[in-house]
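Quick bug: Peptidyl-prolyl cis-trans isomerase output formatted oddly.
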Amino acid sequence: MGKDSKPKDAKGKDAKGKGKQAAGSSGGDEGGGKGGKGKGGKSADGLGTCTYVKARHVLCEKQGKINEAYKKLQDGWLDNGDKVPPAEFAKIAQEYSECPSGKKGGDLGWFPRGKMAGPFQEVAFNTPVGATSAPFKSTHGYHFILCEGRKN
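Here's what came back:
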């Protein structure tokens, strides 16, 4: 289904008030007129390397350690239905992450589709802005991600 298949109001919401863009994304009309055709289940921003995500992550070699770090987030925010503030996520990353980015609070900055390997990219591009993914395994170890933004 194309992204323009339903009538939208000025904020990019369909007639039922459900937005197609992730919460917190900037510029509802950014990239307008380019005719991007997002597919169902994929990013509303379209496909290809022109779509970027801003994310933080925690990487651990051992599953037990990633689960311990994730539990801290669950106990503090996730179990209450709250979103994890980036500053709090950064503290967990500094304490637990075995990736060099851990020293920067797990901040990976903006990266394009196609830069990260398989499951990491899938999770990063499918996690809603402001949300924290569940732990998952990649070729580098075990991760969880905080998605901070999307842009074209």
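Actually, after a second look the formatting is fine. The chain is about 20% helix and 20% strand. Closing.
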